[in-house]
Amino acid sequence: MNQDTLFLEVDFAQRRKHTEHICGDAFQSQRVDGSDRILAVLSDGLGSGVKANILATMTASMALKFAASSMDFVHSAEVIMDALPVCQIRRISYSTFTIIDCSAGGRARFIEMDNPPLLFIRDGKALPLERREMVSPKWQDRVLRFSDMETMPEDRVVLVSDGIVQAGLGSKALPLGWRDQGLREFVLDRIRQDPVVSARTLAEDVLREALSRELNRQAHDDMSCAVLYLRKPRKMIVLTGPPFDPNHDAEFARRLQEFDGRKVICGGTTTTIVARELGVEAKLDLSRMSEHIPPQSTMEGVDLITEGILTLTRTAQLLEKGAGVRGDDPAEKLAALLLESDIIHFIVGSRINEAHQDPTLPIDLEIRRNIVKRLTHCLEERYLKETHTLCI
User: Strands 235-240 and 262-266: what pairing?
Assistant: First the structure.
């Protein structure tokens, strides 16, 4: 992707039904052939728990494959329905879905079946979509709704499962639940408060607001919110490890200084090199200590400075788990910055640090280059980020 083009950020937030151990909704997304085309699916399986999760996951996986192919989608929907296992109680196989096929510069296509209507937001307003209905001859009770829009910078798409719009259902304050109107008003107000709010933050805020309407903040149905946000890319650079040749130290520091975006340094030796070459001071920050991660440092013009291998390894673990990131310790702060960024440049020094060759250290303490590979793979595959790595 050309870095001057727009970027399509995709993220979601979920909460399982409070009596279950697994969420019965599934959200999946993928980039098509390394292009700027993104496919995303939100599916809600019949019921809740493990069975619902199986239905939703199967539906989302198949829908992604069919959307990427040239197969007629009505036929694709029939194949999906035929493939789903039958519920032994209700004697039906059923899973709702919303499919988005969107490119950073072009059109967005939407296919909806029984999920709450998606929101397409532009210039602080929810634009109406012209939905065309189609019924499968084989499944007369399943109505597919097709729509499309030309995309523009700052467009957002918000899609939710019915657990969101039904939040508070039956309560004195919300006898009919939060409903589509409540969701729409909250989303538009949140964007007015922060016009550049990220997809991840908006999805988390929608989930949090829906939970606030539930008794004891306990989800009485599976809840999911996914957001797609089309915007100018947010860039970030991560320097880690000293250059193989000390003669390159000045260039190493200059890359950081001249970068237009967020700046992160991982590693004590790396920090020392940058501070020396730029003539600035790095100060150890002991105000917040973590039991497992060394403390961070501060330096003028740098967003975050952490220890190297341990912090990068812990950051990779957090991103791979996909758990919520609070930003309490340096690893969580680094993970949060990575998730808030779109195009991430890793500058990796190749000089060997002998301290990391000790065979008694944890097996997960890989050499720096392999940890960066692990990070970039996770960022690209799980979070659809764009990454670039330069080893010097």
Answer: parallel
Q: What are phi and psi of 326, to 5 degrees?
A: -85, -30
pLDDT means per 10 residues in the chain (392 residues)? 70 94 95 83 91 91 87 77 68 81 87 94 95 82 88 96 95 92 97 95 96 93 96 95 90 94 95 95 82 88 94 93 75 93 93 59 63 95 93 88
Q: Alpha carbon of 32 to those of 37, 269, 313, 341: distances in Å?
A: 6, 39, 29, 20
Distance in angstroms (rounded) separating the CA atoms of residues 138 and 255 = 60
Output the domain CATH number for residue 293.
Answer: 3.40.50
| C-alpha distance across the termini of the chain, in Å | 23
Distance CA 158, CA 199 (A): 9
CATH number of the domain where residue 183 is located? 3.60.40.10
**Residue 267 amino acid letter:** G
Residues 152, 154, 157: CA angle, nearest 5 degrees = 85
Q: Which of 212, 231, 250 is the last residue of a domain?
A: 231
Structural domain total, the chain: 2
**Per-residue confidence (pLDDT) for residue 359, from 0 to 100:** 55
Does one domain contain both 209 and 258?
no
Q: Who contacts 217 (Cβ-Cβ below 8 Å, separation ≥6)?
A: 211
Backbone dihedral region for residue 123 (phi beyond 0: left; psi -120 to 50: alpha; all else: beta)? left
Determine contact, residues 255/274, Cβ cutoff 8 Å. no
What per-residue confidence (pLDDT) applies to 365?
Answer: 44
Range of the domain at 339: 235-391
The domain boundary, picked from 201, 231, 261, lies at 231
